[in-house]
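for the recovery benchmark. tokens below, seq after
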């Protein structure tokens, strides 16, 4: 092999680092308790929500149901139709801006506390610790030769991981059907194939991501660690190691042996860090927080709990590793919360949320759409009239019967032919399709293209006094030849 080829091969090999197994150590502290609380809340919502019942006058009684076949999403008391897809756009805008807003203030707290990868990995690591033991026991087990004991512990661990993955996939599937019926049919083998396919796919991905890949997802797969730097600034809160306090004037950490009191360490030029390595051992991504801000850090704050535990045990003040900012570490001043960036994000969030709420509160109870049938665009009738055809769709979004009368407005001398649908009834959450034929004599036409309105007016009776009158603008076309012949 030539020298140039050898250099290329070595460079390529250096770009791909072999995975170093990580065996996180358990830790106790306020941030660990907070993570457990969020974990229990998230799991409770995810796994119990499909089973929550919600009384409706019509439709399923499941609180949250994504009915693909019926083209409706049921969210507690709200029914979302395909025409309301812009609500989803509003939610996505709010979620994105909220993520940017929080990241600009407090860094990657979403990754550390709320991300699905973090939540499920926490549970998988809890199972691993319960079956295989603490960090040292797991390392010893991994290095030990294969035996019946090792096979049992590893097999039980992976079996429990698969069961959690199966519960995750099955629960997700239950959101798309009536949970009790769908679950029963899945158990008895009579559920549709997509239900099994979705469950197995999510079982596999949960097992791989939370059990096998773990920190590799955060380090290499998730793009958030890469573009988060665009949202950071020197005043953003990060999990940081106070290097000046920890290293002292010597510029390196010093173990506690021989210099146990803080006064002795200060006099010798050493800082408060005793190089115990606890912060590294508890990190789920295996980094050393003392090396500064790193893309792998998910701001889970477990290293803060670890360091505080050591500081308490040796009688030193807490905060050697803490939520801080680059400004505070360098200049000693607190970060500013009111910044142009956060004000901008907050303003967008408030405006988008207000518009979304207003749209939901003022949604129409009955929706009408009109589409002109353009093949052919117009027809010359035997009596000289011009006919245009339209497809009308009227949807009742309420739980009550609706009675409407269809008419025209703004088209001189026009005749509306809708067969038996001049007066029609809409059942709750039902849709009616009407083919309307509109005829006009060319002598009454004012132009080749004339704007007019289809009017759906509620009957003035006791059925629904709150029904709305619906207007839809349409266009009537008259061929130029017929228009000129009559004018």
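predicted aa per position
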């Amino acid at each position: 092999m030539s020298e140039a080829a050898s250099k290329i091969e070595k460079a390529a090999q250096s770009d791909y680092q072999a995975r170093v197994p990580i065996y996180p150590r358990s830790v106790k502290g306020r941030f660990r308790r907070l993570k457990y609380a969020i974990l229990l809340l998230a799991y409770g919502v995810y796994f119990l929500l499909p089973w929550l019942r919600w009384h409706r006058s019509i439709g399923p009684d499941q609180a949250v149901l994504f009915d693909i076949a019926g083209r409706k999403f049921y969210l507690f008391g709200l029914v979302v139709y395909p025409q309301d897809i812009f609500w989803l756009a509003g939610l996505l805008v709010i979620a994105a801006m909220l993520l940017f807003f929080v990241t600009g203030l407090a860094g990657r707290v979403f990754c550390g506390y709320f991300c699905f990868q973090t939540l499920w990995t926490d549970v998988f690591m809890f199972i691993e610790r319960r079956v295989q033991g603490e960090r040292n026991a797991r390392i010893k087990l991994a290095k030990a030769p294969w035996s019946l004991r090792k096979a049992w512990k590893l097999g039980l661990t992976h079996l429990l991981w698969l069961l959690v993955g199966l519960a995750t996939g099955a629960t997700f599937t239950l959101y798309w059907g009536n949970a009790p019926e769908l679950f029963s049919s899945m158990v008895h083998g009579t559920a549709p194939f997509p239900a099994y396919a979705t469950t197995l796919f999510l079982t596999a991905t949960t097992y791989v991501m939370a059990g096998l890949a773990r920190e590799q997802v955060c380090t290499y797969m998730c793009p958030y660690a890469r573009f988060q730097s665009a949202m950071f600034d020197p005043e953003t809160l990060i999990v940081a190691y106070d290097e000046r306090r920890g290293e002292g004037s010597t510029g390196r950490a010093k173990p506690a042996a021989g210099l146990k009191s803080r006064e002795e360490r200060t006099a010798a030029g050493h800082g408060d860090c005793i190089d115990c390595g606890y912060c590294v051992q508890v990190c789920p991504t295996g980094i050393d927080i003392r090396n500064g801000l790193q893309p792998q850090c998910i701001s889970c704050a477990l290293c803060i709990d670890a360091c505080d535990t050591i500081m308490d045990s040796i009688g030193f003040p807490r905060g050697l590793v803490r939520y801080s900012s680059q400004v505070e570490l360098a200049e000693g001043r607190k970060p500013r919360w009111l910044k142009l960036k956060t004000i901008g994000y907050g303003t967008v969030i408030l405006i988008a949320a207000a518009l979304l709420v207003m749209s939901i509160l003022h949604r129409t109870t009955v929706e009408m759409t009109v589409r002109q049938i353009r093949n052919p665009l117009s027809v010359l009738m035997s009596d000289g009239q011009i006919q245009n055809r339209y497809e009308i769709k009227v949807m009742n979004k309420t739980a009550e019967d609706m009675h409407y009368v269809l008419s025209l407005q703004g088209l001189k001398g026009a005749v509306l032919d809708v067969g038996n649908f001049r007066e029609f009834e809409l059942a709750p959450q039902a849709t009616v399709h009407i083919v309307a034929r509109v005829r006009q004599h060319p002598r009454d036409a004012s132009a080749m293209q004339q704007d007019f309105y289809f009017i759906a007016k509620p009957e003035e009776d006791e059925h629904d006094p709150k029904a709305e009158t619906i207007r839809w603008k349409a266009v009537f076309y008259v061929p130029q030849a017929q228009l000129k012949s009559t004018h």
